[in-house]
Amino acid sequence: MTRFLKGTDRPLAEAYRLALLDLDGVVYRGKNPVEHAAESIRAAEHAGMTIEYTTNNSSRFQHVVAEQLRGFGLDVEPWQVITSSVVAARMVAKAVPAGSTVLVVGAEHLREEVERAGLVVTDDPQSGPAAVIQGWFPQMTWQMMANAAFAVEAGATYFVTNRDLTIPRELGIAPGCGSMIRAVIAATGVEPVASAGKPEAYMYDEARELNASAGQSLVPKDESIAIGDRLDTDIEAGNRGGYDSLAVLTGVTNPHELMLAPAHLRPTYVAPDLRALGETMPQPVDHGEGRWTCGTEQAVFDVHAGRIDVSDASSVDALRAAICAAWQAADSGVDMDSVSLPAFEMTGIR
Fold first, then answer.
1. Taking the model in full, what pTM does it have?
2. Which CATH superfamily is domain 12-56+200-278 in?
3. Given this structure, which CATH class describes domain 87-195?
4. Could you list the active site residues?
5. pLDDT digits (tens, 9 = 90+) for 35-55
């Protein structure tokens, strides 16, 4: 059965106690803040929502990220920043005996987190490591990847911080952690047993536990919401873990991608930006025969013409209706490659 977008008659910051917020494309773009993000986060916290920041980046220290966010006017403590290094170290510590030796391929942040988890860091594959944890950092060498391969071949359990194939850099798109991991897999024939980063749900689960360890009660999944700009990481992780999710249009995700999203990449809510935290969400309504409404807007799938028409291509409610119409058509067997979809203007949607 198709799961469509949901609605809520309370602002998201009141409907959910904990927001698991992605960073790049949601809160900032590189060094610059995303529009409306900081003031929306502050307002959500004032309404009682707890904010945690989740990122697949394994090289940046929590205090460095927290300092950047404080520069945007946010009140952020380092423990609120959940990096894939933090999650990876906790993941490995739960899988091997206390005090085990772990071969670490990654930045200083990852090495420190592994030590903080009560494990012994090594670079030597001949020291008998119980596990290998591989992250991304720009100084990675062939010898480091070879050492990881040697340890895995000798029986060490293989963990990774994330499997992102690419990473945006100043000059363009560069190989990410996943590309480096492929080299070790090719050499050993061994797949990692677990990844700390999204789209695995492990990061969200650990974030909830870390929030509880900071003196808060453990927030149930149904009172937590995953928020991000990427369907194939942030939203998929939410779906894998059983979390509701919000896709925002301030980063990678666009209306066309949302309308064509397969079931495992579909969010619970869609909004232009983080101002949605302080807003209610109208429930899309199915009127049959391909017609959906959301608020005062509508979308209609004209099966004979092979297109979806909307009442207002600048309205997010029309987009929400169009998303539901498209998901319904796709799940009923319609070839969406042959369907003409409405052209929403990203900068004009509100």
1. 0.89
2. HAD superfamily/HAD-like (3.40.50.1000)
3. alpha beta
4. 22, 24
5. 999 999 999 999 999 999 999
